[in-house]
Amino acid sequence: MTQANGFALNIIGERINPGFKSTRALFDNEDIPGIQALAVKQAEAGAAYLNVNIGARALTDVDFMARVIRAIQEVVTVPLSFDFPSKAVQEVCLATYDPARAGGRLPIVNSITEHRWDLMELYGQYKFKVILMASERVEDGVARGNKTADEIYATAKRAALRLQRDYGMPLDDIFIDMSVSAIIADTESLNRGTIDAIRLIGGDPELKGVHMMGGLSNIGQQLPPKAADGSDLKHALENAFLTLTAPHGFDTVLGTPWRGYHPLPEEDYVFAVYRNFLEQTGTNALRAVRKFYRA
User: Fold this and answer.
1) Is the whole model's pTM more than 0.90, yes or no?
2) Contacts with 22 (C-beta within 8 Å, 6 or more apart), sequence order
3) Which residues, 6+ apart, have CB-to-CB distance to 187 below 8 Å?
4) Please, what is the average pLDDT of the chain?
5) Cβ-based neighbour number of residue 21 at 10 Å
6) 27 domain-assigned
7) Spatial contact of 261 and 242, defined as CB atoms under 8 Å apart
8) Please, are residues 109 and 82 in contact by the beta-carbon 8 Å criterion?
9) Which backbone phi and psi does 120 adopt, to 5 degrees?
10) Is 26 part of a structural domain of the chain?
11) Over residues 141-155, mean pLDDT
């Protein structure tokens, strides 16, 4: 964990992912030195882990997947996080990963849900940490999305304690993904539900030691680049979210390590508008969003 200008955060470097055009080009050209340089850049910027995702190609070209993992581990010593829903792909990743090159530190399997628990069948042969999605639960055998704080909290607690009880997994090895949603059309108080769930999890003594995390880039999707006060709106929103949640145990960000995060003072324009937005629902929430970029 590194101190990020006031926040004690684990940064899981997100850039080795074809969702970034420049990275997709590296994969398309099988530019292994370029992938290695990207890994080094993130590690030197303070990433605690590097997320690795080569996209759908992982299902059809496991040899390339293994080449990428070995190449990354040749140049960095930070542990890796493998971002694939497929058990078969995760098994290749875990078999290829060399803990010794990461100082004995475990990799992360990203991610399991109550509906996608088969990944835990790998835990006997391999040891790893997990990213646990709290955004959906299983009810009557069917996966259902969680929207309220109580639903998110109950799912997170049930699944985390199951990992501890049935597999002997330390709570410190569990990262609960809180699924930070975009505010642009959040008329159902999803942001408020996530923040309230973080407070519930952080205040539960049975869950002491778990990490809470999320990708913050969604929060400002489709908003203008600048806030009404001239600040970087999307980055300010990320910092506003962290300012409210870091004190309650939200300590890990899937993001770009050189992004830089810092607490916002009470009088910060975006922070004040965000707190107001969190109290709104329906059309009032839509009107509150406009205040971010209209004075």
Assistant:
1) yes
2) none
3) 281, 282, 283, 285, 286
4) 95
5) 7
6) yes
7) yes
8) yes
9) -70, -10
10) yes
11) 94
CA distance 130 to 112: 7
Question: Half-sphere exposure (CA, 13 Å, Cβ side) for 215?
Answer: 13
- Phi-psi bin for 55: left (phi > 0), alpha (psi -120 to 50), beta? left
Does 285 fall in a domain? no
CATH number of the CATH domain containing 135: 3.20.20.20
- Angle of helix 233-245 versus helix 190-202 axis, rounded to 10: 30
Q: For position 65, what pLDDT does the model report?
A: 94
Show the CA angle centred on residue 45, arms to residues 180 and 257, nearest 5°: 10
Between the CA atoms of 6, 257, 223 and 213, what dihedral angle is there, to the nearest 10 degrees?
-70
Q: 224 versus 141: which is more confidently predicted?
A: 224
Inform me whether the pLDDT recorded for 277 exceeds 90.
yes
Do the domain assignments include residue 287? no
Query: What is the per-residue pLDDT across 220-268, written as a single tens digit (0 to 9) for each?
Result: 999 999 999 999 999 999 999 999 999 999 999 999 999 889 999 999 9
1, two tokens: 């964990």
Domain that residue 50 falls in? 2-226+236-262
- Is pLDDT at 285 greater than 80 in this prediction? yes
> What single-letter amino acid sits at 53?
N
pLDDT of residue 140: 82
Is the pLDDT assigned to residue 2 strictly greater than 70? Answer: no
- pLDDT > 80? residue 295: no
Q: What's the CA gap between 249 and 189, in Å, rounded?
A: 21
> Cα(51)–Cα(44) distance, rounded to whole angstroms?
15
User: How would DSSP label each residue in 79-114?
Assistant: -EEEE-S-HHHHHHHHHH--GGGGTTPPPEEEEEBT
The pLDDT score that the predictor gives to residue 186 is 94
For the chain, what is the domain count? Answer: 1
Q: What are phi and psi of 189, to 5 degrees?
A: 60, 40
